[in-house]
Amino acid sequence: MNPFLLWFHKIGSPPTFYRIAGRIAPWCLGIGFVLGAIALYGGLVVAPRDYQQGDAYRIIFVHVPCAWMSLFAYGFMAVNAFIALVWRIKLSEILAMASAPIGAAFTFITLVTGSLWGKPMWGTYWTWDARLTSELVLLFLYFGVIGLYYAIDDRRKAARAAAFLALIGIVNVPIVHFSVNWWNTLHQGSTVRLLGPSKISGDMVWPLLTMALATHIWFFASVLARSRVGLLELDSGKDWARDIALADAPRDTVTAHG
Amino acid sequence: MADFFAMGGYGAYIWVSYAVFLIVLAIDAIAPRLGRKRVLAEIRGKLKRQQTRKTP
């Protein structure tokens, strides 16, 4: 076996991944938190008022990064779902299922903050605009994946069934992304672009991009923490999980065991 | 300071948005910690039951 594959198998083994993830996750959480705090300060205090929307536009600093994350989390889930279905790698099943609730959380924030932005700017909390509707469908897809995963008792079969649903649902991701171009409705087009100049001033864009970075790092902190729990649950009969459970026991239970 | 919280009249929309963002992410951070505690307690419970079965 070549060294890369060997390394891959080692990382992918539950006890090793559990240990490494446990070391990385707190750092991700801390860095995500600090970057997020800087971005909040930048967005709420440093960034100037918008000439058209006044202060209301400041919702962008939570709305847009969360919207990006709602798609990113789905992509991450779908890639892992694909690997789980094709190669039946346990860790990929766990990673795919760990990202579903985080994606759902970001999608929920996107919808709520979007509607709170819509009220003062469009005059309505909700409209069946293409972008809003496809984002709502995205939330339901996340709920479907989570629900299916918990509806089946066998954890591995459940993960594969939910992974299949996650893969089918990926058709919605480009619909969300391109909806503002395909249908000319209420929601505005993209302001920040990877290719070509963004349509936003510099002191507004840095808090936005910092928050985007913070939410990505936060996502990985959460995925790692959740997949650790998933691995413990899946391997609850194995020695490595039992050792961790016993080491974690409150003092009195350990002595009771002798 | 009052000016800052008023946000040019959009204060309510902005602060509720940011509160939702912070609360949902706080729940997201706490959930796996509670889950870990629950799973570890379940494993210990299973081990205990097995032990009492072996030594009646």
Rg calc of chain B: 23 Å
How can the largest sheet of chain B be summarized?
none
* Form type of chain A: globular
Would you give the CATH topology of the domain at 29-46 and 54-184 and 203-227 in chain A?
Four Helix Bundle (Hemerythrin (Met), subunit A)
Mean pLDDT of chain A: 91
| E-strand count of chain B | 0
* Number of helical segments with 4 or more residues of chain B: 2
- Tell me the name of the CATH class of the domain at 29-46 and 54-184 and 203-227 in chain A: Mainly Alpha
Please give the count of helices of chain A: 10
Helix percent of chain B reads: over 70%
Q: Which percent range describes the beta-strand content of chain A?
A: under 5%
What pair of chains forms the biggest interface?
Answer: A-B, 44 and 32 residues
Order of helices and strands of chain B: HH
Count of DSSP E strands of chain A?
0
Question: Structural class, from secondary structure content of chain A?
Answer: mainly alpha
Classify the secondary structure makeup of chain B into a structural class: mainly alpha
Biggest sheet details of chain A: none
Which stretches of chain B are low in confidence, meaning pLDDT under 50 for 5 or more residues running? Answer: none
